[in-house]
Amino acid sequence: MRHPNSNQKLPISLNLKAVNPLPPNIKKYFKICKEKLGLIPNVLKSYSHNTDKLNAFTKMYNEIMLGHSGLTKLQREMIAVVVSSINRCYYCQVAHGASVRELSKSPELGEALIMNFRSASISDKERAMLEFSEKLTLESHKIEEEDRKRLKSNGFSDSDIWDISSVVGFFSMSNRIASATKMVPNSAYHSKGR
Fold first, then answer.
1. CA atoms within 13 A on the CB side of 130
2. Domain range summary for the chain, segments of one domain joined by +
3. Distance from C-alpha of 180 to C-alpha of 3, rounded to nearest angstrom
């Protein structure tokens, strides 16, 4: 695939083209991605048809997934994988499964979270976090004070609960966009962390 600054079709099923030329801030952001990740994630290429939407997406992603939080980067990626597995989002299972494998240094953890997080070798605290994430994804209207109390009894603060919920909400949105547009994950993700 050529750089998204070209008029070549984006890695989605919709017939959209990247803005040409890309604004300098987006070129710079893509360059940083290439340097840090070794690739420009296809989700960013897909959003490059509308730079306002791309900027909003990256700002929210960076704040939720990389910003200051009581949750570790790995915990946030674990939530992303479980939510994406529930939603059967191929793109995010592949991309964030790779992140879990790399951050945890455990290919088994990434696979277990995708297939069935209850089979994963994780702490009771992480299990409570993922069970809350599952319930919030499947039946958000059934979340009750008891669910929040369980998280608190496992060491999560009110701020952590907000952050867990933010990750769930963000991926519930992005999973649907990725599935609706048939977004294709970068092939490099399949081999990362193995």
1. 26
2. 24-58, 73-191
3. 23
**11 upstream amide cis, omega within 30 of 0:** no
Domain 24-58 has CATH 3.10.300.10: no
Flag whether pLDDT at 113 surpasses 90: yes
What CATH number is given for 73-191 in this structure? 1.20.1290.10
Q: Helix, strand, or coil here: 72?
A: coil
Is residue 84 scored above 90 in pLDDT? yes
Q: What whole-number distance in Å separates Cα of residue 47 and Cα of residue 40?
A: 12
In Å, what is the CA distance from 169 to each residue of 80, 84, 153, 166? 10, 11, 23, 5
- CA dist., res. 38 & res. 15, Å (int): 26
pTM of structure: 0.94
Beta bridge partners of 37: none
